[in-house]
User: Fold these one by one.
Assistant:
Number 1:
Amino acid sequence: MFKINRQTEYAIRMLLSLSKREVGSRAPTSEIQEEMSIPRAFAQHIIADLARGSFVKTFPGRDGGVMLARPAKEINLFQLLEYFENKTYMQGCKNENAECPFQGNCPICIQLGHLQEVISDELRKVSLDDLQKVTAHPYLSSLSNYQQSFTSI
């Protein structure tokens, strides 16, 4: 029903990597890319997009790197999906340049619009900080360690 694209998923992973670090610390893009298993070609492009969206700050040079532009608790999934997916409506008639012959009196549009608001509200409640707490779950940590040991063979 609702699927995010790979770029959005990678962007969220990269932000999660940054959110685990000490506030204000910088990380090389290559380190984040490797930690989150993101192809190098995507990593640079996504970091640039994250910087344009004011999610991260970038610092060029040997001692440069990337850091969150604001605290993890202030970045939510709705903001990221809105920025990267460039669409906020489930139903096509609500998107730009779409014409609806029913002019807002369509029961499908009304019902899907209500569902969209519920989903959007829930996405606004989930911050990077919240996601970080989920990834700190012991099962997920052990799975991550397993994946890292497997990929280093």
Number 2:
Amino acid sequence: MLFYYYTLLIFLTLQTLIKSSYSFIFSTHFHLNDLYHNNLYNNLYNNINDKNIYNNSINGGNVHNWCVYATKSKLKAVRKFTRDRPKKTTPAAIYPSPTLYYGNVHDHFGAPPEYLPIPVQDTLDFLRNGRLSELISLLKAGITGSELSKLLSDNSFHEALSKELESIKDISEFQNDDVSNDLYLYFDRVINKPEEYDHYVDKFYTLKRLQSYWAEREQKLYNTTFRQLFSRLRSIAYKMKDAGIPLAEFANPTLWHKYGVFKPVPNCKMVENYLKKHQIAINFDIKKLYFRDENGEIKSNFENFFSKLYKPDDSTHNSTDNSDNSNSNNNSEVEDSYSLHIDKVIGETGFNVDENGRLPEDLVDRIVDDLSDLGVLNHQEPWAINLSKIEELQEQFTTEQSQHAYAIRDFYLSLKFPDYKIETDPYTLESYVNHEYRTKTYERDLLVKYKNWLKSGAPRETFKPMNEKYKHLAIWHSLSKNQRRKLVQKYLKTQTVPVS
């Protein structure tokens, strides 16, 4: 028993000694660690102070930011510890290349729906054989709401359509057909309110609205640019007057281009390039490009047309040099109707399209042969088109090959569409492009306004002071937040009435 207590006492004594030794070791370690870090930080602080003293005394006082690096070591193979660019907010795309075919056809304007619902057979009979088929043919032809309203003024036609429409409504209710019900709702609005639902009737309604929005927007931008150009023209005209050129002699668009009046707008030659591309069709009757000889073979008049066009002594047709001279003659009235070429009598051609809108086969073969000689088509692969050659012909439009290609194009379109013609009015041509490219229109309107300005005595531009409202607004924006708050508090004190 005594031995047991003696062994237990020795064990407790050893345990106490071990605990005290551990506490001593830990305290000594932390104490030494604190001393080490304090010494390290003191050395870093002294180094920073020394650097600041050096920068202030020797380096001209330019104190640089010294980075104190962290004690944690970088990971292995880490090149940079900090990140210069911001973090990515979106994950990287798995397939960055664009897809070849887009799945949703409704993303494209005018695309047909993927599925076309079909009504029941009884409704289809009315749509194919009844008076509704006449209405559908009119809608396909592109009739407008006002035109359809005049046709529906015939009571017999309107009553027949209304009767068939009621039958379609009964079919939709009896057979529980949703497609027939949708057709009833559509045709009910078309028949009874065609002018109110013009977007249901006219298939070009959206394009017309977009065209009108674009035309109004471009006209506003054109007016703004025109005012800027006229202000620039007046300032340059007075500078030319100081240099010795009278204001009346400066009424010349060539001088305006020379002295930088049109510098804010791009130098556009769209009209000149268009007229050069189609000069065969402008100077000659393009429908006579191909003809049949005595043997019935198809011949081409292109070489004859081209030689006459570039013949300098030709008196029957205007050459391109004469047309260029007429363009550069700025003494003529720019505001008058502008026509580069004389009027020509358009004759009949021996070729006509059939009921299906197709040309004669021998004429098509001759056109294909000419296009193959130009390099656009290939005899070995007639289904393939050389797009690079087409681009080359479009860029080099003054060459004989390019003129031949454009002549073939105009000949085909003149047969395919009887009302097709080449527009020669530059102002009409420029109405199809954006406002900054309407150089000829700017010249015409500026010349008219410049002459009116000379008749009014050529007054200088008056300085318009800023409106009082914008003066106060500018002062308000220049104040700080506290200044605004104090002014508001001061104003509220004058407006509030103390409560008695």
Number 3:
Amino acid sequence: MSNAEHPRRTFCQGSTQRYFDREFGRPAIKIYPGGYAATAEPVLISTVLGSCISACIWSPQQGIGGINHFMLPESETSDPLSQGLYGIMAMELLINALMKLGVPRTQLQAKIFGGAQLIQPNGTGNVGERNATFVENYLMTERIPIVAKDLLGRQPRRLVFFPQTGQALIKRLGESTLSPQDIAQQRNSALQLAARNAGGSVELFDQSVNVS
């Protein structure tokens, strides 16, 4: 049968992993720094965020959506494997993948998460705040409405996103402090994983608080 009869339903790039999520009882895709996934399949997409940002972008009309996971607003390298680690490319890669799945740009909505301040006080700059400012400004410029967000603070977050409904679940984890060296190590680890793999509301789960 032709590709036209079986159109592609998922685009993944960079640091991603498929698995079966026992907690929610369905197939899942885990995103690591520098990766993204866009899908029309009935799967969930999960990630864990510190100072990094994930944008959950989807079409409510079509039930198609995805997540990215970037570490810094601006690129520090021309290495193509690292593109998804940086804000502008991470956003463009995800949006372009959704459009390839047939989503008109005018249908896109966003929920944004992450940007915690985890670097030790002697670190240079607030990476989480810079990331949060970038993603809000980017989406405003691109006229993609932000319907919910959970940004900044001092706690890492686990994020679970259901592209078919746009539901996003957040679990806040224990406070953590990282040195600039830790951040650099995370970035290097993400690059290594990418090389191997080359090819309206927010709900808090395990807690009784809703964020909107």
Number 4:
Amino acid sequence: LKEAVVALAKGEAVHRDIGDSDPERMAAPMIADYLKAKEKDWNAAGITMEIVPVNETRHPLAYAVGRATETYEPHKGRVVYLTYTPEGPVDQTILLVGKGITIDTGGADLKVDGVMYGMHSDKMGGAMVAGFFETLSHLKPKGLKVFGYMAFVRNSIGKNAYLPDEILITRNGKRVRIGNTDAEGRLDMADILDEARLQAMKSINPHIFTIATLTGAATRSFGTLTVSMDNGPARLVKMAESLSDAGDMIADPSEVARIRYEDFQVNYPLSDWEDVMQFNDKPGATSNRGFTFPMGFMCIASDLDKHGCASDHPIPYTHSDIAGSAGGIGTLATGSPLRMVIAMKLRKILLVVGPMLTALPHYNWAMKHNPKLTAALGALHSLYVPIQVREMTSTKQKFNRLGLFQFGDKLANSTLAVSQGVAVYRDIGNGDPIRMAAPRIAEYLEERRAAWEAAGINMKIVEPNERDHPMAWAVNRAVKGPIDQTLLIVGKGVTIDTGGADLKINGGMYGMHNDKMGAASVAGFFEILSHLQPKGLKVFGYMPYIRNGLDKHAYLPDEIIVARNGMRVRIGNTDAEGRVILSDVLDEARQQALKEVNPHIFTIATLTGAAVKAYGKVARVRYEDYQVNYGISEYEDIMQFNTLPGSTSKRGFTFPMGYLALISGLSNHGLSSQSPLPYTHTDIAPSSGGIGTYGTGSPLRMYANRFILPRVLP
């Protein structure tokens, strides 16, 4: 153990020597000298080293990044190749590609307003690879072969600097259109990543990694944590998850994100001039999915996109963005075919879903009833008529009959039930702030009382605390037969969000009538329950509907509000109202859960702009997401925390869950408590749909497919 600790420490020392040193002490030639000094010891441990100047033919993209400095010898770029070969047989090969920008000025897209400060750390990815080999040299693990690739260049501005709109040719012949010279990291790695790909095809059980301080979006999304993401073959072995688990064991935590089709799509060419776009013309920190689409670019530029699960040569590839963790200086299917049918005024539609003959066994979405269910829900999505169109025009529906070919009664009935739930979700969620003000939502739900009660759903609607806006919740109590699971679902229902005293300005209020989509999801879930009536599942729903307005009585920053359980809450920003309206009903849900069989609590909310900037598959709540909400004086027990919009706060979509757990008392029901209560928070700000679209049905369909449909479909 002591030997391992020393080896790790020596590896970290190399990492820090290279990564933390200033851009003159660790310019590319001096990094080469530093590594050359280790060559003798590394050779003895089975490590070979090759260091070459950045070459316009072999490394054209990295060369372009460093072009402004190529005439100045002390700053000329270097590429380092390392290979560790163990004694005995090899059973695993990893190929590490590290970003090595020795100083990032932004180039022609110059970093201004002081943000260039600290950019000497932009070589931390390459430094990490070097440190990894230092550790290898001491521990000499058997069975593991390792290749390392590091391109050290300086991204400077000058008369020879590369520019936006340039078309660069990669080593494999792809034409790359530059969008922003400050997105240089993906260019620095693209050509050596292609070399790693070719090497992987000749290696035993290979897995490629890129490690880079790549995007401000990763810092915005995950604070000081690394975020890792897998391509398809890597996801099959759950590499990003296993990295996270391994890091947790030794205090090097990381998060996991998922790469999706749109992360490739945004890099596709816009004209005949290029094969791939470097895409963003603005900083990654302000781009949606800013830390995932660069991996899409690197896959395309290096041809790794040709090595997916369905290829002849699948190659697992994992990208780790360490921008947050390296340390500082101190949409759904469009429904377009159905829109075409509607435009042609065809009123009788037959939906036929063919067999997925080429689907691989792990494509769960293509198995069993899933393709038919998805296709039918997509059709019904396009055929939906909004409530205000139904009420204000002669258009009541867009079709007379929709045939579902070879669906079977159970699947057809389940599809219809889910679509009816989604319709309730859209009626409430998309209705404007007058049509779906809180009292009128109550009226809408009252119209469903008879049908819901016939299905065993009880509903109670009350007016809280002298407000005109009621708080509504539906409770499914009359479950026939034994209960094996209880869900308690709390949905945010802000009927219009002006921001309150922290007023949304510059057009930011537009579309905020959709801020009730979380509560609309709960109502839609109960509509599905009323039709399918699954056995064994008991559900409680809580929907506080309130308008966040601005007048002389509005709540203000610095106010201390006392929650129903006596906790004193200091308000930091009135535009963080979602967590405030969920607080008390979440506490009620907690108390109810303590009396129920196998309970699980959920909150669903269009809560943070940070989720729009950052969304991935799953995020993890950590200690710091609680810590930032702790009281800072004797006046309060808990801070509502942020004085900035959530979209500009680090970990902006995770710490609200920490607040909710603290204010509701759920923080007292962790794994080590006498009464552990499972609690899951779903932020649907990115997925619920905008003002120009129907509500997407997210996450309603996901929740229905997880908890209801398995009980009613074979």
